[in-house]
């Protein structure tokens, strides 16, 4: 499960860049035992506007 927090976007014509903060909760099973891990992460995103619609054009994961 991911919880997305504050985000910011900078527009530049048909292009944009953004930063999004997230807390990711992961539940896995290793050797028959449940493991729970929480990660705080930051995404550096790129967007492009095509035919009036915005799309992701790139995403970099930063720990």
CATH topology: Nuclear Transport Factor 2, Chain: A
Name of the CATH architecture:
Roll
Q: Tell me what portion of residues adopts beta-strand conformation.
A: over 45%
Supply the helix-strand structural class.
mainly beta
- Rg (CA only): 16 Å
Task: Spell out the helices and strands N to C.
Answer: EEEE
Q: Ends: how far apart?
A: 17 Å
Mean pLDDT: 95
Which segments are poorly predicted (pLDDT under 50) over 5 or more consecutive residues? none
Count, helices: 0
Question: How would you describe the shape?
Answer: elongated
CATH class: Alpha Beta
**Biggest sheet: strand arrangement:** 1-2-3-4
- Helix content estimate: under 10%
Biggest β-sheet strands, sense, barrel = 4 strands, antiparallel
Number of strands: 4
The total tally of domains equals 1
Organism: Pedobacter heparinus (strain ATCC 13125 / DSM 2366 / CIP 104194 / JCM 7457 / NBRC 12017 / NCIMB 9290 / NRRL B-14731 / HIM 762-3)
Domain SnoaL-like: 1-54
Pfam families: SnoaL_4
InterPro entries: NTF2-like_dom_sf, SnoaL-like
């Amino acid at each position: 499960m991911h919880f997305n927090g504050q985000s910011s976007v900078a527009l530049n014509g048909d292009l944009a860049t953004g930063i999004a903060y997230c807390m990711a909760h992961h539940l896995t099973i290793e050797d028959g035992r449940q493991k729970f891990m929480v990660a705080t992460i930051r995404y550096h995103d790129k967007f492009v506007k095509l035919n009036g619609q915005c799309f992701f054009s790139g995403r970099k994961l930063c720990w």
